[in-house]
Amino acid sequence: MGIGSVFYISVIPLLIINGGFILGYFVFLLAGKNKVLHADLKDKSESKLLFTSLKNYWFTITEPCVQKLIKLGITPNMITMLGLVISITAGVCFGLKSWGLAGWTMVAGGVFDLFDGRVARATNKVTVAGAYLDAVTDRYSDGAILGGLTWAFHDHWLLFFIILSYIGFYSVSYTKARAEAFGVRCDVGTFQRPERIFSLGMCAIFSPIVSYYFNIEPPILIYAVIIVLGIGTLITSIYRINYTFKKL
């Protein structure tokens, strides 16, 4: 697939979806609706990359989707498994170096990853089994994405940073899980899963656009985000280890 083709795969949805999203966000702020925090955000930790007003806007505009899923009888576990399938599809797109399609698919998978918990809370179906399934499928989803990138860059110097990302992604999750097993809430650090999905997805979407306008073949945004994620997730996991040690 040439640069021109992948450019249109990225830019057309970008103009339609992001244009409406950004306009709606400013209307949301100007109307003062951000003063009321969505119920699902009250116990959420702060993010350094995704600020609260943006998350509040996102949760508010997607609430009708959550209600529609409930009316259709879609269970949280069904949403979880669908999110996994979408993430695997994104991984295949990454492997085929279809960056724009991979980015949009990855973002879609991330959206479903948020819906399962919201549907569970809205229908009083929050269970330990559901939380366990969600956590496990998140790891498979991460593996599918990184597996696709490994496939795409198997003979490239970037593979070193993809391996770092493997270690970082899983150590960030594991350090949190072990800390919480000992009674320490460990949501600290910058590169948590939503930030990873957002940054990698957005860079994949914009990569063909940058290549098209600057007439360069290498996906430099993909290079940049993988390097940042590889190093950043390792730093986050080390920070969590230090944080947990101080709390124990």
Structure notes:
The longest helix is centred in the first third of the chain and has 28 residues, at 3-30. The chain has one domain (3-247): Up-down Bundle (Four Helix Bundle (Hemerythrin (Met), subunit A)). It has 9 helices and no strands. The chain is mostly helical and 248 residues long. The model has no long low-confidence stretch (mean pLDDT 84).
Mean pLDDT score: 84
Under the CATH scheme, the architecture is: Up-down Bundle
What's the SSE pattern? HHHHHHHHH
- Give the CATH H-level superfamily: CDP-alcohol phosphotransferase transmembrane (TM) domain
Task: Please report the number of helical segments.
Answer: 9
**Structural class from helices and strands?**
mainly alpha
At the fold tier of CATH, the topology name is: Four Helix Bundle (Hemerythrin (Met), subunit A)
Q: Radius of gyration in whole Å, from Cα?
A: 18 Å
Tally the structural domains: 1
| Shape call | globular
Euclidean distance between termini CA atoms: 53 Å
Question: What is the quaternary state of this protein?
Answer: single chain
Low-confidence stretches: none
Explain briefly what this protein structure is:
With 248 residues, the protein is mainly α.
What tags apply to this protein structure?
248 residues; mainly alpha; Four Helix Bundle (Hemerythrin (Met), subunit A); 76% helix; 0% strand
